[in-house]
Amino acid sequence: MSTTSTTEAGLADAGRRTRVEKLARLTQRNGALVILLCLIVVSAFAFPTFASAGNLSQIALQAAFLAPLALGLTFVIFTGGIDLSVGSVFALGGVLAAWASQYGFLAALLVPLIVCTFIGLVQGAIVAFTSIPSFIVTLAGLLFARGLLLALTEEGSETYKVPADSAFLELSRGSFLGLGFPVWIVIVLFAIGVLVLHRTSYGSTLLAIGGQPDAARLMGLPVLRSTLIVFAVSGTMAGLAGALTASYTASGVTTLGVGLELTAIAAVVLGGTLLTGGAGTVVGSLVGVVLLQVVANLINRMGLTNSNWQAVVNGAVLLVVAVAQVLLSRVQAQERQRRRGGEADAPKPT
Amino acid sequence: MKASPTTASVPVKRSMSVRAWIANYGVYVALALLVVINAIITPHFLTVANLRLQLIQTAPVLIVALGMAMVIGTKGIDLSVGSVMALSAAIMPLYIGYGTVPAILVGIAAGGLSGLMIGALVSYFGIQPIVATLAVLIGGRGLANVIGGEIKNLSDPGLAVLGSGSLLGIPYSVLSAVILVLVAAFLMRRTTFGVMVEAIGGNKKAAELAGIRIKSVLVSVYVLSGLLAAFAGVLVAARSSASDPRTLGLLMELSAIAAVVIGGTSLAGGKVRILGTVGGALLMQLIVSTLVSHNIPDSVSQMVQAIVIVVAVALQVGRRKA
User: Fold this and answer.
1) CB B320 to CB A262 under 8 A?
2) Residues of A in contact with B120 (CB under 8 A)
3) Which residues of B touch A135 (CB under 8 A)?
4) With 50 as the cut, is the pLDDT of residue B229 above it?
C-alpha cells in the first residue's frame, strides 16, 4: 500500500465502518444514556409516583450535589490522571462554607472555593513536577484535607451552623422554573465544560495529554500548565459542591463525603469516559451522575433502605461498565481488522 | 550487600547514584533515625512493652503490604485491600458458631475470592488494575456494611487467643507476620514464581515471549494479595474482639502502598523488595506512634502523614524527566 492510498483509506475510514462496528461505537459512547432512558421508562410504569414532577426535580437536585465533582474529575481523567481527594475536599468545602456564612453570602461562597482550589493546585503541582502517580498524590490529599477539616472543627466535634437569616441558604433552596438553583448552576457548569472540551484548544490539549503524554510534551503542548489547571478546577468543583451541600443542610457536616470520590468516578466511567485518559465526554458524566441518582431512588423504592446497597450497586455497575467498554473496544478492533484484512485481499470498489 | 562506592566525578552522575542509594537504603536510615530520636524524646520508648505494642500494630499493615508489594511488582496496584479487610472481618462473625478456625477460614476465603475476581478481570478482560480494584474498594466496603451492619462483638475465646495471646513472649500476630515475611521473601527470591512476577512487571511482552503464563501468574498475585488482606482483617478484628466494617481497614491501601514504595519497590514494576517493605511498614507505624505519643491531635497527625507519604514517594521516584 502506498502512502497516498493509506491516507485515503484513513479519510474514508469513518464512512466505511461496518454496522457492527458502528453499533459497538455508539453503545460505548452512549450506553449510559440508553440505560438511563430505559430505566426511566420502566420505573415510570413500575412506580406511579416515580415520574411525578416532585420526584424528578428531587432526583435532579440530588444529582446536582454530585455533578460538580464528576465534572471536575472528568477533566482530570481526560489527562490520564485521577483525583481521589474530591470527597474529602467536598467535606472541607462544606465546613468552610458553613463557618464563613457568618460573614455573609460572598464569604460563604468564596472561602471554600479559594481554599479548595488551592488544595487542588498544590496537588496538581506535585503531579506536574514530580513523577508520583496522581492516585498517590490525591490519596495523600484525601488524608490531608480530612485532617484539615478535623483541625478546623475541634477534631470533628464542632458543627458550624449557617445563620437562619443568611442569604446563603437561598443558594440551594431557591428555585427557578421549578428547578432548584443548584440544578441551574450545574447546567451552566456543564455547558461551559462542553464548550471548553469541544470549542477550545485546551480541550484537545487535555485529551492529547491523556492519549500520549510524551507526544503531547514533544509537540510543545502546555502539559504542566494543563495539569495544574485540571487539578485546581477539580478542587474548585469539589469545594463548590461542598458549599452547595452546606447551604442545603444549613450546616457543615464533618462526616460527609467519605467515599464520595468513588461515586463520582463511577459516574464518570459510566458516562463513557475511559479511565486510561485520552477519550471521553462531558455530557456523559452528567448522564452517569443522573443514572446513579435514579438507581439510588429505585433502590429506596424497592425497600432496600440500607444505604450501603448503593455502594455495592455502584461497585458492580463500575465493573460491568468497565468490562463492557473493554469488550466493545475489542469488537471494534476486530471489525476494523477484518475490514482491513478483507480490503487487502480483495479491494472493493467504492 | 552494599551500595557500590561512587567513583563518578561528574555531579549529575553522582546525584543520580545518591538518589538510587536513598531509594534502596533510605528507609533503613530513616527508621534508625526515628528510633534514635524517639529514644531521646519519647519517655518509655525503649521498653519491651512499647516495642511489643509497635510490632503488634505494624503486623496488619505489613501483612497487607506483602501482597501489595507483589502486585506492584507486576506493575499493578491493589486499592481493594482495606475493603477486603472489612469484608473478611464482617463475614467472620456469621460463621463463628461453627468454631474459630472455620470462621477464620471463611473470612480468609472471602479475600481469596475477591482476589480471584480482580485477577480474572485484570488478566482475562484486560481491565486496568486501578479500575478493577477501585470497584471492589467501593462495593466491598458496601457489602461489608450490609453484612456486618453495626459493630459486632466477637467474644470468641479462640479469636481472643489469636488477638492477644503469644508464644514465647511473641504475640501471635507478630509471629504470623514474621512467618509470612519469610514465606514471601522465599517466594520472591528462591522460586520461579518470584522471577515470573518481576518479569511481568519489568517487561510484559518479553515475559510473554519467554513463555510465562502471564494470566495465571497475575491471577495468583491478586489472589495472594486478597488472602493476605483478609488475614490482616481477621487479625485486627481478633485483636479488638469486634468487627466494625465502617472503619476497619479504612485507608489501608494508602498505608500499604506507602510502606511498599518507601521500602524501595518501584511503582513502575519489575522489582519486589520484601525486606524494604518491612522497613517501610515499621517506619510508617513509628511515624504515627511518635505523633500519638506526643499528644499530637488526629487532625495534625493525618496532615503530617499525608506530607510524609508524598515526600517519601517523591524521594523514591524522583523528578519528572523533562
Assistant:
1) no
2) none
3) 77, 79, 130
4) yes
Beta strands in A130-220 (DSSP E): 175-176, 179-180
Grid cell in block for residue B292: 500519638
CB B254 within 8 A of CB A133: no
Q: Which chain A residue has the Cα nearest residue B307?
A: A140
Global pTM reads 0.82
Asked whether A112 and B303 are in contact (CB, 8 A), the reply is no
Instruction: Name every chain A residue with its beta carbon within 8 A of the beta carbon of B77.
Output: 135
Q: Which of 1.10.3470, 1.10.3210, 2.60.40, 1.10.443 is the CATH number of A17-344? A: 1.10.3470
- pLDDT, position B297: 84
A315/B140 CB distance under 8 A: yes
Q: Name the residue among A128, A143, A262 with its Cβ closest to that of B305.
A: A143
Q: Hey, where are the domains in chain A?
A: 17-344
pLDDT digits (tens, 9 = 90+) for A171-199: 777 777 777 788 888 889 988 888 888 88
Interface test with B, best of A83, A131, A295 (most B CBs within 10 A): A131
In this structure, of A229-238, B130-139, B145-154, B299-308, the range with the lowest mean pLDDT score is: B145-154
Q: What is the mean pLDDT of residues A141-146?
A: 90
**Which ipTM was obtained for this model?**
0.76
